[in-house]
Request: fold
Amino acid sequence: MNDILIHSRAILPEIILAAGTLTLLTASFFKFSKVRGFFLILSLAIYSISILFLLAGEKYFGDFFSNSIRIDSTSDILRLLILLTGFITVILTEYSNELKNSPRLEMNLLIMGSVLGGLFMVISSNMIMLYLSVEFISLLTYLLTGLTYRKEKSLEAAVKYSIYGGFSSGIMLFGLSFLYGLTGSIDFTTLSSEIVHGPASSRIMLLAGTAFFLSGMGYKLAMVPFHAWCPDVYEGAATPFTYFFIVPRIAGFGILIVLFKTAFLQHISSGYVYESIAVISAVTMTLGNFSALNQTGIKRLLSYSSIAHGGYALALFSIMGSGVDQAIMYYMFAYMLMTGGTFIIFQMLSENGEGDLTLFQGLAFRGRNGAFLAASMAGFAFSLIGIPPFTGFMGKYLIFSHLIEDGRYWLAIIMGINTVLSIYYYMKFLHLSYFTKNENTRRISIPIPITLILVLISALNIIAGIFPGLVLDLI
Amino acid sequence: MEEYLLSIIIFFPLLGAPLLLLIPDRYSRFSFWITLCILSVPLLLTFYAYSLYDPANPIRPFSSEHTDLMFMEIHSWIPQFHIQYSLGMDGISLSLILLTSIVSISGLIIARNVKNHTGFFILYLTLYSGMMGVFLALDFFLFYVFWELMLFPMYFLIGIWGGERREYAAIKFFLFTLVGSIFMLLVLILVYIYSDINPDPAVTERTLNLIYLTDPGVLTGPFLEGFSFMGPDSFRMAVWIFLFIAFAVKIPIFPLHSWLPDAHVEASTPISVILAGILLKMGVYGILRILLPILPDETVILGPYFLALAGVINIIYGSFNAMAQNDLKRLVAFSSVAHMGFALVGISSLNSDGLNGAVFQMFSHGTISAMLFIIVGALYERAHHRKIDGFGGLIHAMPRFSVMAGIAFFAGLAIPGLSSFVAEALCLIGSFSIYPYITIVAASGIVLSAAYFLPAFQKIFFGELPSGGETIFPDIRISEFLALLPLAALTIILGIYPSLLLDITGMSVLRLSMLFQ
Reply:
């Protein structure tokens, strides 16, 4: 009993969120929940408490609940990032035109549940926990995608997402069952030692299991060739949820870091795993960038750009050495800032969640708000390209230096070429907003909370780029 | 104050820029004066630095023990990667920050009447900080960050306030420079990974400090298969070539130059002034500050091809292209390509005469090309075209303007008594003892420059003034005069008394040249 109490304290932020979902449900029985904004305030309060406990509460690092949960400094940061993203998503939904008629309770419940799933994902340390949390977040994000089901695209995206997702979960589970069957253990750490000391004859099966497992993760993280669902889902989901898809991505990369760090994959490697990850990474970034080149729809463009950035991050997994996890974390942080910021700007510009690059036409000359949006977009675009002093540059610098240090020159060169390629479509944003004129001079209104969020993200985008030490010290 | 002098020079304009945002729209006409005030602070501080600079230090070769740099600032910046915030100034940097602060003021005066000027001035100030930072940074990473910091203000300054094909020019400039930057980034990472300042072989201590990197033996890399044709030290050779490409884009050197005519022609006058006056000097400065001190042996091997030959090709190619132009601005742009060739030929000599000539050429070309672009801009403002054939007899309508233009054009063709003569003569004197044939070909560049500057000057200023020309071409405006005056004065003063500049560059250049003896 005492044990459980101690262990529970380690996952207090998660428990608060879980209790929060129940609170939301309970509150919905009462009449006062019909007040406008009630669920917004309530869920924001719950996130804040959870964040508060995560930041101010005592740190419990170690293994908990018979090795099914492991908390270290890496997962701590990931939890914070996920909670913050959830917090911002809730604010975004409030100001979204697309979600005006959506049921508030269900929406907030689903978001909170997905955040919870993400949190559990990054702290899980055995196969069961991993699989359950991946399914948890997946199922709820399928629903989030389909929440605006009156739009045909949304419905289509939800169906597509759930079919692809279900399929990939199956593959992942298949791979995990291989690993379990061969080693008789579900714990990552024991698994890796079993692998080392186990008979050599099972090598090939282990490799197959790992391949299946990684393919499943590849689906979730939209790696080429498992990426086909991504643009459609990004396009179909309401913009705040598209923003929210940062969470599964961060969580997915987070759990991969944990897996690599616990030496689970290092032992199976025998080179093949790393080589194939390098190849997948190269293909992913190249295909993502090439596909993004001629996209006009902003959501599709950004989804391909996200795929490409996933490829950059994946490149680091192919060399997993000391300090690499730090670089991946920094890149995730940068990705969260720059892609997230872009989606927020898109939401401010688009009324119905659709729209192509013409939305940005003459943006800089549409009053103070327009100039503000254009300037922040410029910062995010430069960051996405990787130009100092923005975070994206520092992220890319870390990736490049690790790749070169480990002698993966070819991957570094491919990444360099990709960076040049990506300039073409990122500069479209700047080109349109600064160099073209627009007859539509309708003034843009930005709600104050969103202004604050954008200012904060833009400021972080510069500060964390100039002083990366601030972020790296945390990790 | 003196310990933070360089930081103030670099960051004062950048931190002053947000001030312009606070000005209400009604009073936006004052933003020019505020910008002028902001820029005059670093100008005065550079003069102060000039007055304090003491070239009488004993001359020692370039090394980490005897840096002989002034106003050094070293702070830890990103300790995880041994990146420092370190600044310092020697004679070469000093001459270039002098150039930057003077030319920037001239450019600003010309920019007085631009549209949307608040945004323009903010970007201008950012650009200024980037340029100053490049000339003062002593850490490779810091250098790179400043190098890139100029990129995006320049992109907007060309793209928003430029001429007809401004968007094309802006993106072309951006792409070319960024491709160069990627090469520099690659070198930056390679240098970081393979540097070791700790003499103990068991302990590796990495650095990006440009001063430490000049010590022999700090940078040794693995044998690169792909570059094996370059001998056993293929790693350093590869680094040399990559870094050279990064700088060559900016100088620009012949096959990589094609962004220059577009960017210079499409940019508005103040931005052309900055581009030709300062930005082109960064590539050469990078060669002097990084390439030569860090990789001296490789420079000796590769210099004849990449510096001397490329310089001559620049001179000839730029001159012939300039001759073919009917657009005055394109002519001036190609003349810049040719004149930067002289600086390269000067550097290739690797002796103190040639290096001095290169630095002097940077300074003198900075002032002269700035003048030329201001003159082109003034003509365009009056006539709304830049065709050389379309002008004539302007000396009758605008005599005072013609005097200024005369100084600029004749300085362009290196008449004795003007600074460009000293510069080009020094470059050629330096290189003659090493590469006599190349120098002879390069010297023909002076004749060639007469072949494009003189006819242009004749067509524009002599001959018949078209009827009604008096009203179209009013004489020089006070702002134009104020912008041209310091530049013209410098051209003449340095032509007569070059020691003003040679005294401050001499020692630093001598130290640099001692690496090659």
Summary: DSSP finds 20 helices and two strands in chain B. The first strand of chain B starts at residue 70 and ends at 78.
